[in-house]
């Protein structure tokens, strides 16, 4: 297979690139040149924010498969799809379950209503949900039944540049009492970037099209299993202090941002952690144990001196140490 990876130097894009190389596929990476691509690829440079003029490097060549992880203005997906039309066999767009109208009820499948107002022609600063839905529409407009829409949920694993799992690993590695948001058995739903990458390549090679919720089953892991794994792999003497969600909320602790991956029971938890998953599983999606994801992420993080990369368009995450001290003392 000849693969064109739009991006391919960080996190999900890099996971896809490395998975394709491991299959001995021919990989071309189109990127802005800010980070070095994996060895063994053909590298093309350009800037998708520059409109069609930034895509000159894509004006020649042909590929069996295009994988696109773009999360900005949908017009960038539109322009890439159009310039590649006729020279690419299949277009996979890594979308998000955020494209569903909020709140999404537990178990919502791919036929759930998407957000309205998304346009494939939208440029500039577009809200995330509208940007992803607009990107979907742009891919469909050009590639039709040769477009695969992978609606991922929370993505973690080696290479993460958002900071969620790396923050928990760093915090537990420091040891001492650690605020752990209860309950221990709170269900998580996510996907390891490497499992997502493997499924994307298999699905595209099989000619799958349309939308798939690419997430684990709800409860594939619990908050307790995740944090216990963090303590274990870091070899620390951290003491998890399981804390009632009500106490955390009353203290002004923000779910998802202050305590990454934590969501108290309610609409947002059901929307992000109770999504339908059966269609992707029936199409071969498999998710590795949480302990493996945590251990591999820690190994990768240690190889970087303990400092994870961070996307400049995303705010930093993690609980302020002073707030944690107050909660522990209360």
Number of strands: 15
Overall structural class, as computed from helix and strand content, comes to: alpha/beta
The string of secondary-structure elements, in order, is EHEEEHEHEEHEEEHEEHEHEEHHHH
Report the uncertain regions. Answer: none
Mean pLDDT: 97
Distance between the termini: 59 Å
Radius of gyration: 20 Å
Structure summarized in a few sentences:
With 330 residues, the chain is an alpha/beta fold. It contains 11 helices and 15 strands.
Give the SSE map:
Elements lengths: L1 E5 L4 H12 L3 E6 L10 E4 L17 E6 L5 H11 L3 E9 L31 H16 L3 E6 L1 E3 L7 H11 L2 E5 L5 E2 L1 E3 H13 L4 E5 L6 E2 H12 L4 E5 L1 H6 L4 E2 L2 E2 L6 H7 L4 H5 L7 H14 L17 H9 L1
Helix pairs in contact: 1-5, 2-3, 4-6, 6-10
What features would you describe in this structure?
The chain is α/β, with parallel strands linked by helices and 330 residues long. It has helices at residues 11-22, 74-84, 128-143, 164-174, 193-205, 223-234, 245-250, 267-273, 278-282, 290-303, 321-329, and strands at 2-6, 26-31, 42-45, 63-68, 88-96, 147-152, 154-156, 177-181, 187-188, 190-192, 210-214, 221-222, 239-243, 255-256, 259-260. It has a seven-stranded parallel beta sheet with strand order 3-2-1-4-5-6-11, with helices on both faces. The longest helix is centred in the middle third of the chain and has 16 residues, at 128-143.
């Amino acid at each position: 297979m000849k693969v064109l990876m739009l991006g391919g130097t960080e996190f999900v894009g890099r996971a896809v690139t490395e998975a394709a190389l491991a299959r001995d596929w021919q990989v071309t990476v189109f990127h802005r040149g800010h980070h070095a691509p994996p060895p063994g690829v053909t590298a093309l440079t350009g800037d998708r924010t520059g409109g069609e003029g930034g895509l000159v490097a894509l004006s020649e060549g042909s590929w069996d498969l295009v994988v696109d992880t773009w999360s900005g203005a949908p017009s960038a997906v539109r322009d890439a799809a159009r310039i590649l039309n006729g020279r690419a066999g299949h277009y996979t767009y890594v979308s998000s379950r955020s494209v569903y109208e909020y709140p999404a009820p537990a178990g919502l499948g791919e036929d759930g209503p998407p957000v309205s107002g998304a346009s494939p022609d939208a440029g500039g600063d577009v809200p995330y949900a509208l940007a992803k839905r607009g990107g979907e529409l742009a891919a469909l407009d050009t590639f039709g039944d040769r477009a695969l829409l992978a609606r991922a949920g929370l993505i973690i694993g080696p290479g993460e540049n958002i900071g969620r799992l790396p923050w928990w690993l760093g915090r537990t590695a420091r040891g001492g009492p650690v605020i752990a948001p209860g309950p221990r058995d709170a269900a998580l739903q996510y996907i390891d970037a490497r499992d997502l990458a493997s499924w994307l390549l298999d699905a595209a090679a099989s000619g799958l099209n349309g939308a798939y919720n690419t997430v684990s089953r709800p409860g594939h892991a619990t908050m307790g299993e995740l944090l216990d794994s963090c303590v274990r792999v870091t070899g620390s003497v951290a003491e998890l202090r399981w804390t009632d969600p009500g106490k955390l909320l009353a203290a002004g602790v923000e779910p998802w941002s202050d305590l990454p991956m934590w969501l108290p029971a309610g609409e947002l938890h059901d929307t992000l952690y109770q999504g339908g998953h059966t269609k992707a599983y029936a199409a071969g999606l498999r998710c590795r144990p949480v302990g493996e994801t945590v251990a591999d992420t820690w190994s990768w993080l240690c190889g970087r001196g303990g400092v994870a990369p961070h996307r400049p368009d995303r705010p930093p995450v993690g609980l302020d140490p002073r707030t944690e001290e107050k909660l522990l003392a209360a």
